[in-house]
Amino acid sequence: MKDVVKDPLKVEQIIKSAQKEFVDQGFTRAKTETIAKNAGVSKGLIFHYYGSKANLYYETFVTTMEMITEKADLTVWTGAENLESMIKNALIYKMKLQIEYKTEFALSMQAYTSLTELPELEQQKVADYIKKQMAEYVPMMSGPVIDRLNLRDGVTQEQVISLVGTVGSAVQDKSKVFLQQHPEATVADLQPIVDEAVALIEIIEHGALKPESDTK
Amino acid sequence: MKDVVKDPLKVEQIIKSAQKEFVDQGFTRAKTETIAKNAGVSKGLIFHYYGSKANLYYETFVTTMEMITEKADLTVWTGAENLESMIKNALIYKMKLQIEYKTEFALSMQAYTSLTELPELEQQKVADYIKKQMAEYVPMMSGPVIDRLNLRDGVTQEQVISLVGTVGSAVQDKSKVFLQQHPEATVADLQPIVDEAVALIEIIEHGALKPESDTK
Amino acid sequence: MKDVVKDPLKVEQIIKSAQKEFVDQGFTRAKTETIAKNAGVSKGLIFHYYGSKANLYYETFVTTMEMITEKADLTVWTGAENLESMIKNALIYKMKLQIEYKTEFALSMQAYTSLTELPELEQQKVADYIKKQMAEYVPMMSGPVIDRLNLRDGVTQEQVISLVGTVGSAVQDKSKVFLQQHPEATVADLQPIVDEAVALIEIIEHGALKPESDTK
Amino acid sequence: MKDVVKDPLKVEQIIKSAQKEFVDQGFTRAKTETIAKNAGVSKGLIFHYYGSKANLYYETFVTTMEMITEKADLTVWTGAENLESMIKNALIYKMKLQIEYKTEFALSMQAYTSLTELPELEQQKVADYIKKQMAEYVPMMSGPVIDRLNLRDGVTQEQVISLVGTVGSAVQDKSKVFLQQHPEATVADLQPIVDEAVALIEIIEHGALKPESDTK
DNA sequence: CATGAATGAGTTTTCATTCAT
DNA sequence: TATGAATGAAAACTCATTCAT
Known about the structure:
The structure is a homotetramer. Chain A is an all-alpha fold.
C-alpha cells in the first residue's frame, strides 16, 4: 500500500467516514459500501488505497491515535504540583478533547475491544500499536508529577501510576457512555464525573503520600 | 425456543463447544459448523435448540455467567476483616476459578467487547444481563466488609467500592492476558499479580481509613 | 404405503389437519410439523403412514375429493326441468356444501393451482385424478337435464355444458373468496352470487334454446 | 432496490431467464442459481439487483405483465362491430401473442396460482397488481363494443362482460395446456379452440341481444 | 406401532474484493 | 488514478426425512 499515491483530501474523507462507521457499527458490521458512500468516494478507491477492510481499520486506528496524541497537551500532565490537581487538569482537558473528538476517542477506546473481529495480522498490528503507545505515553504523562511526590515508604511510583491509570480509564469509560447518551454534552455536563474521579484520586493521594506532605 | 425439548448432555456439549469457539474466534469468526462438529452434534440441532447463532451466543453467555456466579463463594468476600485480606482472599479465590474455568471467564470478560458484533436484539439482551448482574453482585460482594471499615471523614463507601472494583477489574484483565499466554499456569504463577493488587489495595486502605484503624 | 396398517382415527385427524394446513399455506409453505401437531400425532407417524409430504398431499387431496363427491347429491342436477332451475338448485346445494365443508372445497379448488409445487410424480397423479374426475362427473351431472333441453339448431349439448360449467366455476371462485373474507357466512349471504349466476344462465338458456321453448 | 443502477441488457437476460425458470419450475422449485446461470450473470448480481428471490419474482411478474399489455392492441377489442367478431378477432390476436410470448403468458397465468408459494409481502403485492390490472383493463377492453350492443330487456352490460370474460379465460386456459403439450404450435393449430369459443359467444350473443339485432 | 429428537443436504443471502473501463 | 458493477466464496438457516427407542 505504501507505493500508492493518495489524494490527501480523499484520504481525509475516507478516514473520517471510516471512523464514524467503525465506531457506530463495530468492525464486523461496518460496511465498506457505507464508508465509501459517506466519504464521497468509490468503494474501489478504498481498496486501491488500503487493500482490505481490515487494513483500512488499522490505518484508521493509527491515524486516529496519532491525531489524538498530537492534540494532547502534555503540559497539563507535567505541569501540575500534586496528584489531585494533575488529574483534575488532565481529566478536564481530556474531556474537552473527548467532546470535541468524540468519534476519534470512541474509536481509540473501542480498538482493544474490536481485536477479535480482526484477521490475525491486523489483530497483531493493532495490539502492538496499543502496547507501544502504552509503554511510551503512560510514564511520560504521569512521570514528571509522580517524581515530585513525596511517597510513603513502601509505595512505589509504579503503584501510583497504576492506580491513577485505572481511575483514569474508568473515568474515560463513564464519559464515553455519557457522551453516547448525551451527544450534545459540554464539559460542564461531565463535571460530576470529574469530581467523582478527583475524590478517588484524593483518597489514593492520602494513601500514597507521607502524612506531612498529605496536605494541599 | 423455550418449548424445545433439549437433551441435557447435548446442551452441555454444545455450550462447551460454543464457549471455546466464541472465545477463540469472537462471535463473528466463530462458525456454527465448527461448534457443531466439536460438540459432536449436527448443525441442525443447534438451530433446532437455539434458533440462531446470535441466540446461541446469548444462551452460551448466560449459561456461563450462571455457572460462574454459582461457583462463586461469597463468603470469601463477606467473611474478611479488612479490605486487604478481603481482596487478597477474593483475588486468589477468583484466580483459582479463572484457572479452572479459563474459557468461561474469558467468555464473560469478552462479552462486553463482543457487543457490537451482535445483532441489535441480542446486543440489548446481553447488555441488559450485564447491567442486571452488576447491580446485583457488586454491592453484595463488597458491602459487608466495607460496612465494617472505619472510614475517614469525607470518604464514602461508594468511593471505596469504586476504587476496589477498579483494581479488581484491572487484575482480572491482567490475569486473562497472562492465562492466554501461559495456558498451563497455576495459581502460584498468578501470585505476583495478586501481590501487586494487594499492594494497591493497601494504599487505598491507607488513604481511606482513619489513622488509628490504619494499622493491621 | 399400502401395506401399512393405519389407525382410522389417526388417519382422520391427520387428513383433517393436512387439509387445513395445505389450504392455509399452500403445499410449499405447509409444514409437516404443524400438520402433525394439529393432528395430535407425531411427525414420524405421518411419514410412516404416507411416506412423504408430497404423497400426504396426494392422499389428502384424493380423500377430500372422495368425501365431496360422496356428499354430492346428484339428484339436484338430474331432477331439474330446465337449465335455469337446475343451475339454481345445483348452485344452492353446492354452496351449502361449500359452507359446511369450506376447507375441503378450498383444497379441491386449490389443487390445480398447486400442481407446480409438487414433485413430478405427485404432479402427475393429482393431474390424472382431476382429469378422471372431470371426465366422469361433468357429463353425469349436466347430461340428464341437457338431454331434455330443446336446443336450437347449431347448438350442441357440449357447448351448453361448457358454458354452464364455465359459469359454475366462476361462481365457485367468487364463493370461495367471499367465504375467505366472511368465514361465518351462511347460504343466505351467498344468495347474491347465486342470483347473478342464475341471471347469466338465463341468458345462456335464452341463447341456446329454441324460441318456443324459451319460456319458463 | 430502486436506486441500484442496472445494466438493461443484464436485466433483460435475468428477467428472461427468470420467466423461464419460474414457469418451468414454479416459484419454490426455481433456483436462483439456475436463473443466474442461464442469464449468464452471477448469483450475486441477481441479489444486487432484486434483493431477494421473492422480489425477483415480483419484478419478473410485473415486467412480464407490462410487456404483455404493451403488446396488446386494444383496437382488436374496441374496433369490432359485434360481440362475435370482437371475440373472434381478440382471441385470434391474443393467441398470436400467446404463441409468440408463450413463456410470458404462461407466467401471467401462473401468477395467481403461485401466490401461496410467496412470502406474505410479495403475495400481497402480486395480488394487488392483479386486482389493479383487472379493474383497469376488463372494462376498457370489452366496454366499447358492449356499449353498441342492443341488449334485450333485463340483460345488463355487466352480465355480458362477465359471460364473455368467463369464456375468454376458459379459452386461455385451454390454449395454455395445448401449448404446453405442443410447444411448436401455430395459430392455425389453435383455430379449433377459437372456433369453439366463437360458437359459445354466438350462443351468448343470441341469448343477450334483442331478436331483431340477433342477426349478423 | 408410534415417537420426536436429530440429521444434513440444499438454498438463500451477504459483502469484501476484483477488474474492465 | 478512480469507478462501481459484477463476482462468488462463505455462512446462516430450513425442514423433509430418518431411526433408535
